[in-house]
UniProtKB/TrEMBL annotation:
<protein>
    <submittedName>
        <fullName>Twin transmembrane helix small protein</fullName>
    </submittedName>
</protein>
<keyword id="KW-1133">Transmembrane helix</keyword>
<feature type="domain" description="HIG1">
    <location>
        <begin position="1"/>
        <end position="68"/>
    </location>
</feature>
<keyword id="KW-0812">Transmembrane</keyword>
<dbReference type="InterPro" id="IPR007667">
    <property type="entry name" value="Hypoxia_induced_domain"/>
</dbReference>
<feature type="transmembrane region" description="Helical">
    <location>
        <begin position="45"/>
        <end position="63"/>
    </location>
</feature>
<keyword id="KW-0472">Membrane</keyword>
<feature type="transmembrane region" description="Helical">
    <location>
        <begin position="6"/>
        <end position="33"/>
    </location>
</feature>
<dbReference type="Pfam" id="PF04588">
    <property type="entry name" value="HIG_1_N"/>
</dbReference>
Length: 68
């Protein structure tokens, strides 16, 4: 499965969501100017990245003949 290009793209999307989430949580925990300036933007990016990741997961399952 790791040699499947769609699976690799799926993993990249999931890790992108994780990285965006960790940056957002780190900024929230630290507070200050970074949090005030970027918190809403980072969470919007996370929502979009999650949407793309979920679509890729569903597409991967559908294309590989799995069942939901």
């Amino acid at each position: 499965m790791t040699d499947d290009p769609l699976f690799i793209v799926l993993l990249v999307a999931v890790f992108a969501v994780l990285i965006i989430l960790m940056i957002g949580l780190g900024g929230f925990a630290g507070g200050g100017a970074f949090n005030k300036k970027n918190s809403n933007r980072l969470m919007r990016y996370r929502i979009v990245a999650q949407f793309v990741a979920v679509l890729l997961i569903l597409g991967f399952v559908w294309l590989r003949g799995g069942s939901f």
